[in-house]
Specification:
The complex is a heterodimer. Chain A is of the alpha+beta class. Chain A has 13 helices and ten strands. Chain A has two domains: 107 residues, Phosphorylase Kinase, domain 1 (2-Layer Sandwich); 224 residues, Aminoglycoside phosphotransferase (APH), C-terminal lobe (Aminoglycoside 3'-phosphotransferase, Chain: A, domain 2), CATH 3.90.1200. Chain A starts with a helix and ends with a helix. The model of chain A has no long low-confidence stretch (mean pLDDT 93). Chain B contains five helices and no strands. Classes of the chains: A alpha+beta, B mainly alpha.
């Protein structure tokens, strides 16, 4: 992160150029958002013409510091298209600096909505009360899965078929393992297991890519989804799988608080059958979907191993990999116990 | 060289002090998260320093034994045959970490090929045999990391 004074001054210039009353513009508060492993994010409060508004600024971090590298231009197109559709509740994307000329690095400025993150709200709540969030989470997941592919952003590639897509995602585990500096039999096991145990298909659809309770904001009348940088077209059940993955490393597990209610509502909204969406298919998609983040993480560890980068957050990815292996392995064992593992 | 206190004891001592005295004095949330991450790395490193050479040796010996049985049972599993040969030919049995890690990496490739051959065969016993090896690896990793909780995600 650049020096805060310099950042504030850059931001002030940015908002002045977009104001009807540039002289009145002041950045009155600036808070870094901790915990993001990919983007550099901050909450910014700006006074402009006598009123005060909050914004979220999402920027590329300095080279080598992101765990996963994603593209701001793609994210901007995704945000703009989805927000315009009005089908998915999300904060409005406002401005985009594609080159970083104004913000210091490529960045997107988004409206700050009133709402507490579901992870924070649920952690303040007694576990016996977590089930009151379950249906709300299913509503958001259902809205995502029901989004028509025909209206999806043009920058998102549409796979030729469900089978081809699943094959490609499975092969990604194998190819990424072979490219890695360390040998990882968990990755090759996951690929072999996924090949032998495919679930019933569903139509290809919108996948958020980082669907988890840290990325849901609870609003008064509607709940918002944020952080769209990993969005793609695939099997919408990937979002349930990744949500389950995240619920272990970043609890609580809101789906597990009332599993029946969650899947009932999700199936109602998506039209999926009980065979297509249930806790076992979610375990399958936990294994399939996790490659996106996991491979980004091991690639950073590889760069550390080669001496190209340093940093605490990068070194921390070593225990993170071990923690993710644990979640993968337990999901695989649960799936095997529940379904017979294809044998 | 100085062998006592052990590397593990030294790192554990540093972690205790960082957690009990340094962490409460930090008010910047970004630095708090960095310290939390640094502690997680140091704690896992401490456990690894005490056990990783022994665990790598135990795991690779078990892998070689099972892989040999699979090679005998699955004569068409060419990648497994090749990986086992590369492991056997390259084995150093060294206690120097770089060489021990290279032995372990070759054994891990044998394990990956054994997993693929077992699932491709669809044979329940072969799959159970490779899962037993994965159980061993998983248990060792868990002893290092324990329950992983992502730092700073609130």
């Amino acid at each position: 992160m650049a020096d805060t004074t310099e950042t504030r001054s850059q931001l002030e210039g940015f908002f002045r150029r977009r104001s009807d009353d540039p002289d009145s513009v002041r950045v009155v508060d600036y808070q870094l958002i901790t915990g993001g492993y990919s983007r550099q994010m901050a909450r910014v409060w700006v006074e402009d013409g006598g009123s005060r508004r909050g914004y979220i600024v999402r920027q590329d971090p300095p080279p080598g510091q992101a765990i996963i590298d994603t593209d701001r231009a793609t994210e901007w197109e995704v945000l703009s298209t989805l927000h315009k559709s009005g089908r998915i509740p999300m904060p409005a994307p406002l401005w985009f600096d594609p080159t970083g000329e104004e913000l210091g690095s490529p960045g997107i400025v988004i409206e700050m909505v009133e709402g507490e993150a579901l992870i924070s709200a649920s952690r303040k709540t007694d576990p016996s009360e977590h089930s009151r969030f379950t249906t709300r989470l299913a509503d958001v997941a259902g809205a995502l899965a029901s989004f028509p592919v025909s209206e999806a952003p043009g920058c998102l590639e549409v796979p030729t078929s469900w089978d081809d897509y699943i094959d490609t995602r499975i092969q990604y585990w194998v190819d990424a393992e072979k490219r890695h500096v360390d040998r990882d039999p968990f990755m090759r096991l996951i690929a072999s297991y996924l090949r032998s145990n495919r679930p019933p298909p569903v139509p290809l659809g919108l996948v958020h890519g980082d669907f988890q309770i840290a990325n849901i904001l609870l609003g008064e009348t509607t709940d918002y989804i944020i952080d769209w940088e990993l969005t793609h077209i695939g099997d919408p059940r990937e979002d349930l799988g990744w949500c389950m993955m995240a619920s272990v490393t970043q609890p609580p597990d809101i789906v597990g608080a009332d599993e029946d209610a969650f899947y009932r509502r999700y199936r109602e909204l998506t039209g999926y059958t009980e065979e297509q969406a249930n806790p076992d298919t979610t375990d399958y998609f936990l294994l399939l979907s996790s490659s996106t983040v996991f491979v980004g993480v091991i690639e950073q560890l590889a760069a550390l191993d080669r001496g190209e980068v340093t940093g605490i957050a990068l070194a921390y990815m070593s225990p993170a990999v071990s923690g993710m292996h644990d979640v993968f392995y337990r999901a695989l064992k649960r799936h095997q116990a529940a379904t017979g593992g294809g044998l | 060289m100085i062998s006592r206190p052990t590397t593990q004891q030294l790192l554990d001592g540093v972690c205790t002090e960082l957690a009990d005295k340094v962490a409460p004095a930090i008010s910047d949330p970004t630095v708090q998260v960095q310290l939390e991450m640094a502690l997680a790395v140091l704690r896992t490193t401490a456990v690894r320093s005490g056990k990783e050479l022994a665990w790598m040796k135990e795991e690779r010996e078990a892998i070689a034994q099972t892989a040999q049985r699979l090679v005998d049972a699955l004569p068409d599993a060419a990648p497994l045959h090749e990986a086992l040969r590369a492991y056997t030919d390259g084995l150093t049995n060294s206690w120097y970490l770089d060489e021990a890690q290279a032995d372990y990496a070759r054994a891990s490739e044998v394990l990956s090929c054994a997993v693929e051959a077992a699932y491709a065969s669809g044979d329940r016993e072969h799959i159970a045999a490779v899962i037993e090896l994965m159980d061993q690896r998983h248990a060792n990793q868990q002893a290092v990391t324990g329950q992983f909780m992502a730092a700073g995600r609130t």
